[in-house]
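User: Good morning. I'm curious how flavin-adenine dinucleotide would be positioned relative to this chain. Could you predict the structure with it bound?
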Amino acid sequence: MTTKLAMSESSRAQDIARQAEDFVRSVIIPFESDPRQGDHGPSEPLVMEMRDLARRAGLITPHILEDGTHLTQRETALVLRASAISPLGPVALNTAAPDEGNMYLLGKIATPDQKARFLDPVVAGDTRSAFFMTEPAVSGGAGSDPSMMQTRAVREGDAWVINGRKAFITGADGAGVGIVMTMADEGATMFLVNLPDPAIHIDRLIDTIDSSMPGGHAMVTIDNLRVSDADVLGKPGEGFRSAQLRLAPARLSHCMRWHGCCIRAHEIATAYAIKREAFGKLLIDHEGVGFMLADNLIDLKQVEVMIDWCASVLDSGAIGTSESSMTKVAVSEALYRIADRCVQVMGGSGVSRDTVVEQIFREVRAFRIYDGPTEVHKWSLAK
Ligand SMILES: Cc1cc2nc3c(=O)[nH]c(=O)nc-3n(C[C@H](O)[C@H](O)[C@H](O)COP(=O)(O)OP(=O)(O)OC[C@H]3O[C@@H](n4cnc5c(N)ncnc54)[C@H](O)[C@@H]3O)c2cc1C
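Assistant: Good morning! Here's the predicted structure, ligand included:
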């Protein structure tokens, strides 16, 4: 079921996407060799420099319009894919995770006062945000199964006191806004906090396979964090319901962005195959190489169609839990195959850091785990 974009929506999104892609190709790709990047993502000065350029080009947070409304999901797919022609693009344009999902959730359920204090600075690209849900596996905390959450919020007068540990919190280091998920007597509850806060301690940055997200992924201890009643996001006890609102679109937007990156990886691998010779002819003229690139084209088209289908479901107002699970599995697995083939076609250059293909391969490997590992989505679909 793929519906046509209304003409006005279509041209508005295509216009933004075209500008975003041109900007990323001409201005952001040169930053890919900038030394201000490390194992835990681009540094803060690099992020701010790129955002400044995006702001001046009128392209900061391009999926949210001036009146605060968001493009439709199908429009967002065009724009986010275009913004991610480089792994640095989403960070530069403020379409990256976890901010994009956090902005979506706050736009849906934050109060006007909360929006002014927590959402507006993130939409402006002035600060980053983090979503605190997962907990350390070693102490039996929440991972694939959020109901195992151990972090607790206890009421004290008109405030709450929160204690617990969190793991893999993307961007917590350096973020200005946090959404902290806890258990409480009422049930799962979300809180908004300004960061840094002395009660939220970054124990360490976890060394992971990926490296595109500013601030990396933190192991965090929350020690007697006090949050006022006014900063409960949504209602006490409704944390899982609110998380569901964020999950399907956030999962889909990862698909959109990594789709853009894999288009780029395929371009680079193709450029290599049409120039490099072996055994008296160009690589592309060896059937084995041609088949790998043809398989990429087939997978890329399936990815595009699947994203478009799921986006249409969400645009219809449905919660899209099953559809986004199917899409997340199909797309993350297909993108991994694509990136792996790009590496293979390029031989030694494919595993070198001379091109961004090596990074894209690492990034999509991690994507098969976060926002629900493949097996968890399949298990939940099978139920
Ligand atoms: C790069 C990265 C960034 C992340 N960013 C954030 C973040 O910003 N905020 C946040 O809160 N979390 C974040 N996470 C955490 C992520 O959401 C979890 O890693 C994920 O939910 C899996 O939990 P776990 O790591 O504890 O794996 P586990 O729960 O220990 O699962 C391990 C494996 O068991 C298998 N498995 C589990 N359940 C089932 C089942 N029912 N059926 C079959 N197999 C199953 C799967 O293969 C799974 O991969 C991030 C993770 C990564 C890798």
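The mean pLDDT is 96. Residues 239-273 form the longest helix (35 residues).
Let me know if you'd like a different ligand tried.
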